[in-house]
Batch of 2 targets.
Target 1
Amino acid sequence: MLGEGIIKGLAETAKNFFGSYVSKERLTTVQYPEERIAPIEATRDFPFLVYDGDDWEAGLRCTSCQICEKECPPKCIYIEKSKDKKPDFTGRPQFYPARFDIDISVCMSCQICVEVCPFESIKMDTEFELATTDRFGGLLLDRKQLAKSNAHYHKIHPTEATLVDAHLAEEKAKADAKTKATADAAKAKAAAAAAAGEGA
Amino acid sequence: MLDKLDQVFVLLLHWIVGFLPVFLRPATSVVLCVVTIVCVFPALFAICVLLERKGLGRIQNRYGPNRVGPFGIFQPLADGVKSLTKEDIVPLSADAVVHFLAPVVLVVAAFLGFAVLPMGRNMVLVDMDTSLLFYFAIGASTELSVFMAGWSSRNKYSLMGAMRAVAQMISYEVPLLMSSVVVVMMTGSLSLVKIVEVQNQYTHGLPHWYIFTPWGFAAFLLYATAGTAETNRSPFDLPEGESELVAGYFTEYSGFKFALFFLGEYLAMLSISGLGATLFLGGWSAPFSFLTWVPSWIWFFSKMMLSIAVFIWLRGTLPRLRQDQLMNFAWKFVLPLTLANLFVAAAWRFMGEGWLRWVVCSAVLMAIYGLMARIGMRREHLGPRTYRYAE
């Protein structure tokens, strides 16, 4: 019969209306500034720079290779290479970013910088309360604002961070083995040379 | 004492006017009444907006506005301040004069409708013999302002919205009028005061409201449908369908002019509810004879607010119609039913007292409704569409 659907719909909405006063479970919305839902693990919005240890400046993983700057589709990353070098996590001397800015008003959260980074140094953050009264300076984050500890990374993306740590440990082990092998080879060579000298 | 309360506004008016010299009295009393109407209904508009937002929220299992003041009751105030402080933008290529006049005309036309509504015993601004006719004549001028807004904005969305609005409002004006005509037939008067007086009688404690007759019930439903469409309310809100037309005819309006459109829409809703209450729900008369001691204006305004609640409920329930569905519904379903209802009402009038006319009229109306519904809901076989491109 014509009109039956309207009656059914009206009954449904009436049920919702009165039900929302009776049962709290119906109200699925969260009163945001006071209540918050923890973000799911896959949440990601803007990039940040990971550092190891306690000192953000010394521990930055970034070697300022500038791949992310070149790959960034909206060109929102600005990097200045340092003049000197500092040792990275394997102990090898590397460049570091003297300046690393991301304009998050331009960033489109595509995560390409994360994908291209060979040093696992740039990752996606979950911080979304980035509103500011200054729309130019306030949205241009410098390297100090971007630097966040590995512990923070573990907190926001635990699974991913564990994988990254394992990968880095593997790299380090490989590098260590290599240095050890070269050292051993050098030692053996030196020993051989010494032996040859003695023999001569 | 209760009589005094019933007439409190009338007595207040007489008391104030009593201080003035005789030749000033008629003009002053009119001005005072107008000022009251111009203050009371925007206040009701604010309440309606709050109730609507709250109600829709609850229907969708949300809280609705709850930030400004306790339970968000000052939300309309915040909205008002916001719309007043916003920049008033007039498009460069718009017709500035018409663009400015459109919201003014809309609000004025909406206010004029209240002039003839009896809001309580002896509480009517102008007691015309043809007040119903006056109401519909004024109501038709809202179409003009809507089209003025759409045309002067020089925007495709505005124009589309205005075209839709005009098509819809003119189509639904016909069933709106036709469904009200039965009341005029029964009362024998176009005066709204008279119509309420006729309904203000009781048998066995129950009122003689027109909604409690078969033709009156049918006419009320048809009136409600047409009234919803006439005020551009959901599910008939095609002129301002935001998912298709940004905001329809008031796309290019901002700041206080936008607020005026909003006000005009709600005033139209309030006045169409008031007229519906007057025609079918006995205006200011009490629903039971033992409740007649309650002041008449309380009944009128509660009936009005009840209609608003139903409007909100419908908005929270029904999805928007498509343009062809809207037009088909008006011309192929609502209009034939109103015409049939005219004959049923005539039959009721000439069948005399007794149970027979109840049975006959109800049966005829049900049969016509069933038949029309069957014809309307018949599924036509839809084949693949063929297009022919313009050459």
Target 2
Amino acid sequence: MNEITGKVSAQYNKAEYYLQLKRTNDSLVQANQRLYNKLKIDFDLPDTTSKIVLDTIRIDSLTQYRKFNYLESKVVYNSVTLQSNYIELGRGANAGIKKEMGVVDVTNCVVGIVTDVSDKYAVVMSLLNKDSKISAQLKKAKDVGTITWDGKEPNLLQLTGIRKSAKIAKGDSIVTSGYTPTFPYGQLIGRVEEIITDKSTNNLTINVRSAANFYNLQFVYALEDLKRDEINKLLDKVKKQDQ
Amino acid sequence: MSTLVKNIFRFILFILVQVYVLDRIHINYLVTPYIYFLFILWLPFNMSRSSQMIIAFILGVTLDSFRHNPGFHAAACVLIAYIRPFIISILIPQEGSDTNYEEPSAKSMGGFVPYMVYVGTLTLIHNGWLFLLEAWQFANIWYFLIKTLLSAAISLLLILATELFFNRKQKFRTNTI
């Protein structure tokens, strides 16, 4: 079924993609700008008295390993108007996309999680889905909560499970917590738009303006966690020991 | 054009318009217009109820697989396909009118008002059942009611426009074959 709807959607997307070239190009330029600003060459030492010293005692400093790998993919179908929105990608198991991979947009902001894969297509549960739940953290206050969506306004998410005493202000960044193998720590989800204090609970409900623009998704990256199998094996082993 | 070819053509057209045009619209972050179920309302009179329900199921499942939903539209479509014959038999003006014409329209149902009652009732049932299944809660009943009513109103407006744009030729057939 995914294969059939994927084929039809890919045909339609050819036309839509052409009409959105300008906006897609703009977002790619922005992504490039962010990356260029992270280049080492852009940073200078504060003064001449301090200098970088390589610590030679550190073992393993040279054998770095890669933890996350970015897999590029084209979006062929996307919706924002429904209660449960899904995104369809033009690449599937043949290109190495697997279930439960995290998906980010070109500016590295969270979009969703892969829920189903066929040979050539993959289905992603968008953040704009009533069943979507993603572990999130306040970047400044370090409090961990859950990102959900109430199904009303697209691009406006809800963060729950933050205690009332947390130091939080409008405009704070919400990032992924890194507690699940889906996303690494610190990937931007959105910014605080409104803080609602509900007297009946001990927790705040926070409206979050999503950083990814779901109205204009043409390219996304699926995040492959190369250590996932190892972690899962370890978890299974611990669970068996507990029983 | 034979009835079968005409209906296959309609099926494809309604699904494509719904998925790629109307699903992109979100009026006031609340209402998405629906029109694809007009296909069921336009099915011929002389079909048996079970075959109507099977066709409605196929229509719903097609839309569901495009949206990756677990069968919400299939359920709503089968429901209105089941209720459709009851409403037709209540509203049809005289005995035999459903054999004189091929499919429901303002002409074959004896006027504009009965036809709009037929369309309006089924639109309300379809949208109400669909949103109920989607939300599966009564926590926010006003939101649900307003959403159903508004989306039904906009669907009706679209159906009216469709009827005016595409004049379906309804030949009068005698039932003496």
